[in-house]
Structures are given as structure tokens and as C-alpha cells.
UniProtKB/TrEMBL annotation:
InterPro entries: Preprotein_translocase_YajC. Keywords: Membrane, Transmembrane, Transmembrane helix. SMART domains: YajC (SM01323). The chain crosses the membrane at residues 6-25. It comes from Microbacterium lushaniae. Residues 130-148 have a biased composition (Basic and acidic residues). Residues 120-148 are annotated as: Disordered. This is Preprotein translocase subunit YajC.
Amino acid sequence: MDLADFFANYGLIILLVLLLVFMFWSSRRRMQKQKLEMEAKARQTVPGAEVLLQGGLYGTIVEYDADDLDKPARVEIAPGVEIKVHSQAILRIVNATEDTVTEDDFIEAEETEAEYVAGVADGDVTSISDDQKRARDADGEPTDKPQA
């Protein structure tokens, strides 16, 4: 029996065994990587950390129990607005470099809205098109931007 006959008879079996070993090795490696990522996420998931939830909401963790994952986490999504979510609904910790909405953004938006409503109440602005007509740039030329 020469080498060609050996591979003709047992080559497919050897190939299948090698494929099974590779699949086992790669899945084990992937599981270890996921475990390390979950441990890193658990270390970073502390009250005060900004998070992204699976529903696409950004918020700040108020309460989180890493030991009991069945206990809901409390996340503040706006100043004074807290929601309870399943602890596994926290998709990831948001890096400080990412652009997120802050409390100052909410205050600024409320002030802008209040100024506009005050203009409407005083009769200065009767419609959005009137607001656009009154808007002027630094040179006094009309612009198409509404006045804030």
C-alpha cells in the first residue's frame, strides 16, 4: 500500500477531522474573546458611566448590580428622567470622545424654544415665514434662517 492509496482511502476522513479541530479551536477562541469583552464591559459599567442601550437611547447609569444581572438597571436618559432596563440591554459604554447629548444641550434647546414662544406671544412673530422674513445677518441683509 503506497501513499496515494492511503490518501485515496483515508484522505476524506483526515480532512474532516482537521476541519472539526479547526472549528473547535476557532469557536473556543471566539468565546474567550467575548468573555474578555463582557468582563471589560462589566468593569466599566458603574453609576455615572454613559451608555448606549440596545434601543438606541443614550443615558447615564444610576444603578447597576453586576452580581445580579436579573435585577433591572436604572438609567437616566434626560435630566430627572430615569428608566428601568434589563441589565443586558446595555449595549456598550460610550467613549468620552463620542458626540452625545448633554444637559447643557437640553437647557439651550429649552431657552431657544422659550424665546420663540415669547416672540409669538408678543405678536412679534405670527408664523414661521414671518420669523424668516425678520431674520437678518450681521450686515443687516435678510437671511433665510429663522431667528432664535
